[in-house]
Write a structure and sequence with these properties.
The complex is a heterodimer of chains A (about 90) and B (about 575). Chain A is mainly α and about 90 residues long. Chain A has 3 helices and 2 strands. Chain A is elongated. By secondary structure, chain B is an all-alpha fold. Chain B has a two-stranded antiparallel ribbon with strand order 1-2. The radius of gyration of chain B is 24 Å and the shape is globular. Classes of the chains: A mainly alpha (about 90), B mainly alpha (about 575). Chains A and B meet through helix 1, strand 2 and helix 3 of A and helix 5, helix 10, helix 11 and helix 13 of B.
Chain lengths: ~90, ~575
């Protein structure tokens, strides 16, 4: 394997690792907090919001937005590290 | 000034704006027409994507549906936003790097097969047509209620406007008009929400107002009040749903994956300069979408509470003017079953006297809350912006599928750039006419068909694209087998339970308790499995295709999107 290919596959590995972590959070806030554990979360109340309901209708969406911007930052850094930025 | 004059004024100004932008940014080449010349800034693309995505369904229907479905409505909120995470992380950067015009382009090249390309074109056309008919209908509803013209005239006016700027401007015209439409629709959605939030809870931020105490000094939280009202009238508590957990899970997943697989959304990421911009633009798009999507559930809570308080147990004769106007559109229906002259609004179907179509909630909400005339007119202009922007984006997918993927790539490869541009314009015209026909004569199954569009996108495109990027060894046999099985399975399930084909069935017969709306997620999993199994028994993809895959994983050197 040439250096160029090695570099490409190392970059790809790190990229995939980021994806796994970010998608795990994506799953937890929506399917976890908003659906599977909704009833348990609902026993906690913040202001007028039951927490599980809040995650299903508000919280998960905020986290989605944050996740994409975190991804953008991570990838920009990763691109620089491997000299792929332009 | 009356609501009607305000509406004419605001709708007139916004339409003139859209047409002005279309003339200023008309397309000169196929590159302009398909991908806006490839030089759109991430922010402009984010706004255009957001307007493209937020359709009449998001603007007019969604908050209304949630108002009646309560917690069950969460599937739309999570489903239609969570898909952007998948899109940003799994698809957009790589498809941008791949650098072609359309989704069938990717499928056709990655799977080195004309058959795969044609299968993808057919899926793109089915998905887009079903969707666009719904938009035209939305335009018709707004026109008929607020400008008091015939619903069909409304559809025709909408057709002419969309035709004008989609055909003239292509992707370039559409992109810059959508930027303007985003501004109009978000302003139109937020203003009444903020007004009503202050009115009901004293909090100017609707997202917080939803969880605040009522402004009437009773010290009760709004949500508790609504839960109480709902159970009192025999409905489920607002914060609890009636759907099973498995079904909520499946529908959310199908909508998320379907969102990520919708061709008119994916194609937007071909218009930016670099891979970096594609990622950023997905983030900006979701941020701009989230403004509306986090406000919508608040609007639902306000609207439902206000509606119950305004109509339940009130004298029919004391209803305000807007009530009768909605009655004439058929979206409100009152039937005084016990002849006491009062409106009883309860869960029990045999004694309930009021039918309210969810589609009327967002439009009626400012009137129910007695907001000023200009706010009501603004909502009408916003609804039109939402419907027109989405319709235009879909028409572009239809026209490029026909002119680029079929005529140029399959039937007549030596067509000139100019000829292709004209073919694209002609295809867009034909598509508008067909969409308008369905807007005027809506098939009785619009809602079913829109759910089908998402299920199909989830069951057909998503696995093929993801495997194409993340699984180098995936070959054409696997991908085609997967797409065909996924699509057919989805069609079978939908037609069986929605149209009573293949023996029909009731909800008790649903597989794993999953409704047709959520079945796209099952069909998607089946697609993945079939693809991988078939791949194991068939020859690997050629060397040069594996090199393409390696290349799209590296963000640098993306160049410009091209058709060659």
């Amino acid at each position: 394997m040439s250096d160029k290919q090695k570099q490409a596959s190392a970059y790809w590995k790190e990229n995939v690792k980021y994806l796994f972590i970010l998608l795990a959070i994506w799953f937890l806030v929506s399917y976890g907090a908003g659906i599977l554990f909704k009833d348990a979360m609902d026993s906690i109340k913040i202001g007028g919001f039951k927490l599980g309901f809040w995650f299903a209708q508000q919280g998960s969406i905020y986290v989605f937005v944050i996740l994409i911007f975190v991804y953008v930052r991570l990838m920009n850094k990763l691109d620089k590290k491997y000299g792929y930025d332009e | 000034m009356s609501v009607q004059i305000w509406t004419y004024l605001l709708v007139g100004i916004t339409f003139a704006l859209y047409i002005g932008i279309a003339i200023w940014s008309r397309a000169g080449s196929t590159r302009d027409f398909y991908v806006a010349g490839g030089g759109v800034s991430p922010l402009a693309n984010g706004m255009a994507t957001a307007a493209d995505w937020m359709s009449a369904a998001s603007f007019i229907s969604m908050a209304g549906i949630i108002a009646f479905a309560g917690y069950d409505g969460s599937v739309y909120l999570m489903g239609w936003t969570g898909g952007y995470v998948l899109l940003a992380l799994l698809l957009a950067p790589y498809l941008r790097k791949f650098g072609k015009f359309t989704v069938p382009d990717f499928i056709g090249d990655r799977y080195y097969s004309k058959t795969a390309r044609i299968v993808a074109v057919i899926c793109a056309l089915i998905v887009s047509f079903t969707y666009v008919a719904g938009q035209m209908r939305g335009v018709g509803v707004v026109f008929s209620r607020f400008l008091e013209v015939d619903i069909n005239t409304g559809v025709i006016i909408g057709m002419v406007i969309v035709l004008f700027y989609a055909v003239l401007g292509g992707m370039k015209g559409i992109t810059y008009t959508q930027v303007a439409q985003y501004c109009v629709l978000i302003f139109a959605f937020m203003v009444p929400a903020i007004f009503i939030s202050i009115q009901m809870t004293g909090n100017p931020i609707p997202q917080l107002g939803m969880g605040s105490k009522l402004a009437d000094g009773s010290g009760t939280y709004l949500m508790d009040k609504l839960d109480g009202l709902s159970t009192e009238l025999g409905f489920n508590a607002y914060t609890n749903g009636s759907k099973s957990m498995a079904d909520v899970f499946a529908i959310t997943l199908a909508l998320m994956v379907g969102t990520a697989g919708l061709p008119h959304v994916i194609v937007r990421f071909f218009t930016v300069k670099r891979v970096k911009d594609a990622r950023k633009s997905a983030g900006l798009a979701l941020l701009l979408i989230a403004i509306l999507y986090t406000t919508a559930p608040a609007v639902s809570v306000f609207a439902r509470t206000n509606m119950i308080n305004t109509v339940n147990n009130m004298e029919y004769s004391s209803m305000p003017e807007w009530f009768t106007k909605w009655e004439t559109t058929g979206l409100f229906q009152f039937d005084d079953k016990n002849k006491d002259g009062k409106i009883q609004y309860v869960a029990d179907k045999s004694t309930n006297e009021l039918y309210v179509d969810p589609d009327s909630m967002v439009l009626a909400n400012p009137e129910i809350a007695n907001l000023p005339a200009w706010v009501i007119a603004l909502v009408a202009a916003g609804g039109l912006a939402a419907a027109l922007s989405t319709a235009a984006g879909l028409l572009l997918v239809i026209s490029s599928s026909v002119s680029h993927d079929l005529i140029k790539k399959v039937f007549k490869p030596n067509i000139s750039d100019k000829g292709e541009l004209w073919a694209a314009r002609l295809a867009a015209t034909v598509a508008v006419v067909i969409a308008g026909y369905f807007g005027i004569n809506p098939p009785g199954f619009v809602a079913a068909v829109v759910a089908l569009a998402f299920g199909l996108a989830a069951a057909s495109f998503f696995p093929a694209i993801v495997l194409g990027i993340f699984y180098k060894k995936m070959n054409k046999e696997g991908a085609i087998a997967g797409m065909v099985t996924g699509t057919l399975l989805m069609l079978f399930y939908m037609t069986k339970f929605k149209f009573d084909w293949f023996g029909g069935g009731t909800p008790e017969d649903w597989w794993f308790g999953i409704s047709p709306e959520g079945f796209g997620s099952i069909a998607m999993v089946v697609n993945f499995i079939v693809s991988i199994v078939v791949m194991k028994f068939t020859p690997p993809p050629p060397e040069n295709v594996q090199e393409i895959v390696e290349d799209i994983r590296i963000p640098s050197g993306s160049g410009e999107a091209s058709g060659h």
